[in-house]
Amino acid sequence: MKLLVIAPHPDDEVLGVGGTIARFASDGAEVCVVVMTKGCPPDYPEDDYKLARQEAHAAHAVLGVKETVFLDFPAARLDTIPHRDINAQLCQICRKVQPDKLFVPFVGDIHMDHQLVFLSSLVAARPNNPLAPKEIYAYETLSETNWNAPYLAPNFVPNVFIDISAHLETKLQAMQMYASQVQPFPSERSEEALRALATLRGATVGRYAAEAFCLIRQIQC
Q1: Coil, strand or helix: which one is 141?
Q2: Phi/psi of residue 67, each to 5°?
């Protein structure tokens, strides 16, 4: 089993898929995480991306990620990059990894980077390729997915729930590796908020903790 998780920014993968990554990795699956962007001046300090990548490596080690790929697109400026260039990078990665399951950000997220990464991910996963992923899931990112305009943008209405009861603490430990991003409660980037969301998603389906996804496509052979 191979999983490919595409994160617009470092920490999105832990926020949305951290427990699922830990669960599948513990079962022997190969997990690859692609971080699409890095912070660049003038929006971010010169060496900001170096710290983010150090934190990502530490978080991924906790989760059991096999490979981490960092791309160099500018964070918060993906709308300035030709769409075909983003597509080409993700197509190359999908051909290399050949994932069975693909996890992508939700198209209705308030952050434009998330929306564009979603679209490019679907281009890279076109089903006319025999090596295309058989399952594609969109994940939720606290402070991005739930801050959009209800009824004016697509709403996140999950239809797949993955039980992470045995891996919630691992997810929270991985998030702590992103020390520059974790904030005290009631911030949504706090341990309490992440635990609360996992508890809510779990209780929705009678589990102690879960992560929720929108199934985009499933091909059954």
Answers
A1: coil
A2: -140, 135
What's the whole-model pTM score?
0.97
Domain 2-218: CATH architecture, name and number where available: 3-Layer(aba) Sandwich (3.40)
- Sheet hosting strand 135-139, strand order edge to edge: 67-74, 30-38, 2-7, 101-105, 135-139, 210-218, 160-163
Exposure of 80 by Cβ count < 10 A (0-12 exposed, 13-18 middle, 19+ buried)?
exposed
- Per-residue pLDDT, averaged over 10-18, amounts to 98
Distance CA 192, CA 186 (A): 8
| CA-to-CA dists, residue 77 to 44, 73, 99, 104, 131, angstroms | 12, 8, 27, 18, 31
Beta partners for 150?
153
Domain edges within the chain: 2-218
Q: Is residue 31 within 8 Å of residue 25, measured between CB atoms? A: yes
- Is the model's pLDDT at 131 over the cut of 90? no
Cα gap 179→181, rounded to integer Å: 5
**C-alpha dihedral (131, 132, 137, 140), degrees to nearest 10:** 100
Interatomic CA distance for residues 132 and 124, integer angstroms: 8
Question: Residue 70 has which token pair?
Answer: 């960092």
